[in-house]
Amino acid sequence: MSDRPHKWRDVAWKEVLCDGAQSAIEYLMPDLAADIDPGREMAGIPGMELFADRADTDKDMRELDVFFNVPTRDGMDGNVAFFAEQQHDPNESLAEKVFETYLRLRDRWRMRTTCIVIYTGNSQNVNTYAESCYGFDVSVKFRTYCLPDKSVDELRADRHPFALVMLAGRLSQNAGDNPEQREKYAAEILETTNERGYDKEKKLFILDFSRRIFRLKDPEMSEKLKEAYEMQTIPLREYSQQVKLGIAREEGREEGREEGREKKAFEVACTMLAEGLSTELVIKCTGLDEKKILALRAN
Fold first, then answer.
1. More confident position, 137 or 234
2. How far from 237 is each of 50, 220, 241, 242, 284, CA to CA, in Å?
3. With contact defined as beta carbons under 8 Å apart, do 86 and 11 qualify?
4. pLDDT value at position 269?
5. CB 284, CB 244: distance < 8 Å
6. Angle CA 176–178–180, to nearest 5
């Protein structure tokens, strides 16, 4: 597989870091996550706005991937900048680019700022920038998550939602341009996501990232990922109404046949449980009693 950066990969990583920022911080920066004020929400800041009021902005200055204001428990809020970097240009220093961006952020916002890079390439020592000029020495080290350093088995065993994002990214790299492998790995991510009891928000960013990063050619597999993603985007109230409507239609076709109605209710219950919905919601939507739902969940 070529190391040449692909725009669609960049978009996939940007989107998942934006939509799953809280989960990313919990996974990549557990110390920062512990300091976040749960009573206030993080606020995303568009990258191109950071230096809009600077007359000397470099014309080749790139937009930040993801930049958030993070409320902390001590009241001294800070910023976190995410960079998602593929195999970068060997003539360009990734560490220098992050350092220069940090200086601009610090100058612009005057707040505590930390940077983290998710790096998917194979270069070494990309997390430290050093400069020396006649006794004036600068050395900066920032957090870098090098995707190739984590084994696939290690990521598979990690039940954190963002570990599944990392697994999808790693498997996408392993699959390269092989469509059969991409389909196989996409199916694995879909199945694992459905098996685990993640909430709706976490399922959303995992499935959306999978749709983008695997770029499937198999229409059936693409449709499965699309359907799974879209099912999560349906508001629960609307989903509940759709489920009830489906049961009602089935009852109309098989009026008087209790066995048929219950069979359909069981099918719907199995689907809802597979999507990680709560026992209470499944009971409400299907009409089955709690004992039957718990029995299905146990199986």
1. 137
2. 39, 28, 6, 9, 11
3. no
4. 79
5. no
6. 135
Largest CA distance in the chain: 91
Statement to judge: residues 2 and 143 lie in one domain: yes
One domain for residues 108 and 29: yes
Strand partners, 217: none
Q: Domain range holding 262? A: 235-298
Alpha carbon distance 120, 251 (integer Å): 52
Do 116 and 212 have their domain in common?
no
At 68-114, the pLDDT tens digits run 889 999 988 888 988 888 755 554 678 888 888 888 888 877 778 88
Copy the structure tokens of residue 29: 């920066």
- Tracing tokens 């934006």 back to the chain, one arrives at 18
Does residue 133 have a pLDDT over 90? Answer: yes
Per the DSSP assignment, residues forming a β-bridge with 140 are: 129
- How far is residue 17 CA from its own chain's centroid? 6
Q: Is residue 180 located within the same domain as residue 242?
A: no
Burial letters 263-280, b for 16+ CB under 10 A, else e: ebbeebbebbbebbbeee
* Mean model confidence pLDDT for the chain: 78
pLDDT digits (tens, 9 = 90+) for 88-100: 555 467 888 888 8
Q: What is the pLDDT of residues 171-221, one digit of tens each?
A: 998 998 888 898 899 999 989 998 898 988 898 899 889 988 988 766 666
Tally the domains of the chain.
3
Q: How far apart are CA 159 and CA 132, in angstroms?
A: 43
The yes-or-no verdict on residue 61 having pLDDT over 80 is: no
Q: Is 290 a domain residue?
A: yes
> Residue 280: inside a domain, yes or no?
yes
